UniProtKB/TrEMBL annotation:
Sections of the chain in a coiled coil: none
A Pfam family hit: PTE
Upper taxonomic lineage: Bacteria, Bacillati, Actinomycetota, Actinomycetes, Kitasatosporales
Keyword Hydrolase: yes
Protein name: Phosphotriesterase
InterPro entries: Metal_Hydrolase (IPR032466), Phosphotriesterase (IPR001559)
Length: 303
């Protein structure tokens, strides 16, 4: 039977409720000095604000080695009543010191992913519920191919879904060719993130036709064009028959982006994005995207 693996244990997909399918409670990177998400009270306040806006579940895509604070997540989930799904995986090389990735060479990476999915993250007892990897700008470098090969191996061993950061929304078809073609991962087990950042309707349709999930996750941090084009991109996919492949998320990656610190934060998804998309595709589809789709995308017949 399909289950979503949360930090408090496996639940039926229907139990997730309204879900932010891509966000971060904790995150550290040398690319974001001084902007770390590393404050437990702030994370609790953000989850509480999301809950007050009608949210019930959050999928944290923070992978291995980026300060995901897995040990804090169960208590935060209990305190706020928000279900949390935690990730294993590896981001782009620029987010790590070279020594860390070097230690995972030699066939160790897939084993790390499998261990965190099935046994738990370190001594926390928290089991990851997805594998997060990343592509590059309009392509895949050697690091991306290495991490995706390990993710595919871990998927075949466990059934876990693979969530992919697309750099500025690009490279989706390269990811599909590698993961779903060469590496044999079923499209319905792959989530392509940040497609709102590159609103190319042809690429979107081709990616959707592969069976992959298409995630529109987070307001623009650079300019507004992708924000106002996102609803029309979602509508185009729905009209093309791919409304059942969509996910929505907030992708809060810096402290200043939290709602409790004056940014849009997690509640923005429910306060603004939900209403805006309902004008384009109808409230019924938007509610399915927020409730039914995450359970299908992250639900797994764990092996």
């Amino acid at each position: 039977m399909t289950r979503v693996r949360t930090v408090l244990g496996d639940v039926r997909p229907a139990e997730l409720g309204v879900c932010d399918a891509h966000d971060h409670l904790f995150l550290r990177s040398p690319r974001l000095p001084g902007q770390e998400l590393d404050d437990v009270p702030a994370a609790r306040a953000e989850l509480a604000a999301f809950r007050a806006a009608g949210g019930a579940a959050v999928v944290q895509w923070t992978p291995y080695g980026m300060g995901r604070r897995a040990e804090e997540l169960p208590a935060l989930s209990r305190a706020t009543g928000v279900r949390i799904v935690c990730a294993t995986g590896l981001h782009q090389a620029v987010h790590y010191e070279p020594g860390l990735t070097a230690r995972l060479r030699g066939g160790k990476l897939a084993g790390l992913f499998v261990s965190e999915l099935t046994e738990g993250i370190g001594t926390t007892g928290v089991r990851a519920g997805l594998i997060k990897v990343a592509g590059g700008f309009h392509g895949l470098d050697a690091h991306a191919r290495w991490t995706m090969a390990a993710a595919a191996e871990a998927h075949h061993a466990t059934g876990a879904p693979i969530a992919v950061h697309l750099e500025l929304g690009t490279g989706a078809l390269d990811v599909v060719d590698l993961l779903c073609g060469e590496l044999g991962v079923p499209g319905e087990r792959v989530i392509l993130g940040h497609l709102n950042r590159s609103p190319d309707p042809v690429v979107h349709r081709q990616a959707a036709a592969s069976g992959c999930w298409l995630a529109f996750d987070g307001p623009s941090r650079a300019h507004h064009a992708t924000d106002w084009r996102m609803p029309e991109a979602v509508r185009a996919l729905a009209e093309a028959g791919f409304g059942d492949r969509l996910l929505l998320g907030g992708d809060t990656v810096t402290a200043g982006a939290r709602s409790v610190d004056g940014g849009p934060g997690m509640p923005h998804l429910l306060r603004r994005v939900r209403q805006r998309l309902a004008q384009e595709v109808g409230a019924e589809l938007v509610e399915r995207v927020l409730t039914e789709h995450p359970g299908r995308a992250f639900g797994t017949r764990w092996t």
